[in-house]
Amino acid sequence: MEKEKKRRKILLFGSIAAAVVVALTAIVIISYYYMNRTFSGYDVEREITREDSNNVEYLSYHGKLLKYSRDGISALDKTRNVLWNGGYEMQQPQVDICEDYVVVADIGSKTCIIYDGTNPGKEIETTLPIGRAKVSADGKVAVLLHDDDSDVINIYDPFSAGEQLLVEIPSNVLDDGYAMDLDLAPDGESIVISYLVAANGTMENKVCFYNFTEVGQDQNTLVGGKSFEQKMISQIKYLDSDRVVIFTEDGFTIFKDMKKPGIQAEVTLKEEIKSIAVDDENILIVTGVAGNIDDQVVHLYTLQGKEKMTKQVTIQYSQVEMTRNEILFTGNQNCFLLRKNGTVKFSFDFGKNYDYFFPTTRENQYFFLDETTIRIVKLSG
Fold this sequence. Notes:
Blueprint (H helix, E strand, L loop, with lengths): L1 H35 L4 E9 L7 E5 L2 E6 L2 E5 L5 E6 L5 E6 L2 E6 L4 E5 L6 E4 L4 E6 L5 E6 L3 E7 L8 E8 H4 L1 E7 L5 E10 L2 E10 L2 H4 L4 E8 L3 E8 L2 E6 L2 E6 L5 E7 L4 E6 L3 E6 L9 E6 L4 E6 L6 E5 L2 E6 L2 E6 L4 E6 L6 E4 L5 E5 L3 E8 L1
Antiparallel strand pairs: 1-32, 2-3, 3-4, 4-5, 6-7, 7-8, 8-9, 10-11, 11-12, 12-13, 14-15, 15-16, 16-17, 18-19, 19-20, 20-21, 22-23, 23-24, 24-25, 26-27, 27-28, 28-29, 30-31, 31-32
């Protein structure tokens, strides 16, 4: 009798264990399918007529829309409600975003305005024409100014009740070269600038590191530099306040410690680089020959420079960016979403040209804009 009871208990336990294993396996399979499924279409959840001209530009802004033109800027939610706005008159507005702050600079003129969403904007008037402007996460602004034989990079705190001009970094074109690109650290305490130097019939590309803390004060803010010789520098981008990536024509270099910059990682690619992108977690490079989609390859790296994913993508696109856990390729009539694990999320030909495709704050929901309409769409199928 006791043996029979024991046998039944063992059988019951075995049945329960088997049921648990089956249930867990089903959950894993369903979860994997849900997380890696490929959507074949979309549903339109909301449709709003655009009441603007073709001169208006849109940017993705924390799951919302940032709309700007020559005469103003505004942040919009999914129902097209205005979250904040500002008016101005600019000939060539250029926008940079860092967390809650937005700077709009009139390229070639002498005005830039900084917004934080809580006031009409803080205006800065410069003494020389603006070539570029970058904003930090605390509202400081770096502005590249051009003169005939010199460049100046000014750092401003537009929200300061005292002196707004914090730092001035002058350079002479003959000695230092032409300032080509720059990026301001999110904490506003350092900046990296690339220069193109023409000397003795050759062109040299270099970067200089400036720090505005007590360390930089001892060295006239210049704390480091590196020559890339004839390699063209395409872009500078801070990964966080203490690391920056320098993209060149054949790869990238990551520097760390903005008080004493040193190389953390170097990556060189043999293939031609077509596109680059950076977010809070990854560095993206798309390689391939211009005009040929058959050999396009996506390379995804960690912020330490380690390659974590490669995938061939045979798609036509004009722009690529990273959003959340996705890589978003857009252009003309096509849209292609690739997850960062290498699985395809969405591949679609809309059959007509469109202007923008941005994620909202909800999973699988996007802004889809053409020349006449703003649609909120959700992936389906």
